[in-house]
Amino acid sequence: MALAGLFLLLFLPVHLIINLMLLSNDPEPFNRAAHFMASFPLVKIFEIILILALLVHAAWGVYIQICNWLARPTAYASGNKAPTVFFSKFMIWTGLSVLIFLVLHFFNFYFIRLGLVPGDPKDFYSVAYTLFSVPAYNYIYLFCFALLGLHLYHAFYSAFQTLGLNHRIWSPVVNIAALIYSIVIPLGFAFISVAIWQFR
Ligand code: HEM
What we know:
Number of strands: 0
Order of helices and strands: HHHHHHHH
Strand content: under 5%
Number of helices: 8
Number of domains: 1
Bound molecules: protoporphyrin IX containing FE
Shape: elongated
Structural class: mainly alpha
Largest sheet: none
Radius of gyration: 19 Å
């Protein structure tokens, strides 16, 4: 689950950098990059791994959570107040929210490419601009980006912990990196949607 999660953590900055091309007035760079991502054979293999990683990560997360609940049906009399435990308690809910967001997101974009919903797969630039001109979509996306940030923060440092990469000196550095990553990535996505919505 940690390896699948780390793979997803690598995907998001790439996705963000490509999406930042949406801020250009010229649709060409973004559409060309999206087309490259959709057609280059190596990227297509990466895409299959990505979707598999997503499914494994989500299914395993739900399985572990159910096992946790079944193992301890009655709560502890006194709760653990450590900050790590605070965030980990909500992982199943923030994770399921991201999953629901992805279903919506796939209907908005990815399924167009697969021919499952109407739209022009060669012009994702216009698809994004049409989508983010609707205020309701912005509110939903922004809310989901915030939940994504919460999920990413715990996901980042706990993946290292799961892989046994705890270290007296490096763990605090990983923690700071997790904090920066979980703020910068969702803020970057939010910036794109708000910029299109408010300034275009
Ligand atoms: C401003 C925000 C975002 C925009 C404009 C956007 C745009 C897009 C577009 C245009 C595609 C279709 C690309 C293609 O099929 O060629 C896509 C696919 C995808 N997006 Fe996003 N996205 C955004 C945020 C996110 C976030 C936050 C996540 C993850 C939580 C995400 C996960 C994915 C995944 C997994 C795919 C399918 C894989 C792929 O096509 O490479 N996206 N997105």
